[in-house]
Amino acid sequence: MKMLYHIGRFGSLMKKVLARPENHKTLIIQTFKEMDKLALGSIVIIMIIMFFMGAVVTIQTALNLSNPFVSNVIVGFATRDSIILEFSSTVTSVILAGIIGSNIASEIGNMRISEQIDAMDIMGVNSANYVILPKIIALFLMMPFIVIIAMTVGIIGGLASTFTIDQLTLQDYLSGLQLDFSAYRVYYSLIKSSIFALIITMVSSYHGFYVSGGALEVGKAGTRAVIYSIILILMANLFITQLMLT
Prior knowledge:
The protein has helices at residues 2-17, 24-39, 43-64, 73-113, 116-122, 127-161, 170-178, 183-209, 215-245.
């Protein structure tokens, strides 16, 4: 019963969020600000994580496939597909859920307890649309670029690791990257990550928008936003994979 209540309230909030903006110029300005604040501020940490993740995946794959009957080219192939299909989209989205999700919930929650949202409602402003919609659009537009950067840096990390192990040469790794490449895998990852962006922003905004109490409740709302965002990302990942890859 409680779940149905939250689903109904979430639907009601999204109806307000997706209403036609009263001022399109303001929406565009706010969206660019959110792009800078939410997405661009997270790229560096994503690059660091993906570089080392690509290197570790390559090293582990090379060590586990050190077999005279298996070509070392498979290492580059396995690293490429692991990064493109899963790490660059799902793992990146989980990381962003922790960074951006908690940030959104805390920011909106603070606006709620400081009565800024109530003041907007009194003035006749659609507070949900004004506060939440720019965040949704910003991350939705930026997520494909973040994922492409994550793919590139992850593959570079794998390439860099070839200089630290004897089981794999640079030429074998590069040959593996080109083996049986399909652009559809990249499209799949980009589509999936865009859906994850919607999950992160919508769920986090919902938990922040309906905060009641003080600063302690804002912190709890941020924690709930991260947990539920990650759960929904993993569930959506399973559904999208079944839909697009089988």
